[in-house]
Amino acid sequence: MATDLGSCKQSEHKITLRPVIGLTENLPKRDLEQITVEAIRTHRRLRNTAEARYEEWRKSPAVAACDTAGPARIAHVTAMIDMHAQQTALSTLLDLLGHVPSVPSD
């Protein structure tokens, strides 16, 4: 069942990646934590890239062509897709692990 939040709808079911569940189901918690820590680091890197691409897009000149959003916007959208895909994998790992491991800042 969805809840209407203005123009956004939010599902009460969490998205999980079944392949991640299957791949990690027999791993010891220590190994699962190591994989999760690496996923957190990857997510941070992708987030930083997405933020940088956003700033580049904001500072780029407007694209006059109607047939493209321009390379800076495309780079930003692509970086955001990568980041959100990784976030889904990370969320699944965190659910499996049962806690958020401590990961020092890079």
Structurally, the number of domains stands at 1
The CATH topology turns out to be Helix Hairpins
Elements, N to C (H/E): EEHHH
Mean pLDDT score: 88
- The shape is elongated
| Subunit arrangement of the protein | single chain
**Reported CATH architecture:** Orthogonal Bundle
The residue fraction in helices comes out at 55-70%
The tally of strands reads 2
Distance linking N and C termini: 40 Å
Assign the CATH superfamily.
HR1 repeat
Poorly predicted tracts of residues: 1-10
Classify the secondary structure makeup into a structural class.
Answer: mainly alpha
Within the largest sheet, what's the order of strands? Answer: 1-2
The CATH class designation is: Mainly Alpha
Largest sheet: 2 strands, antiparallel
Number of helices in the DSSP assignment: 3
Gyration radius, in Å: 18 Å
Q: Could you tell me the strand content as a percent range?
A: 5-15%
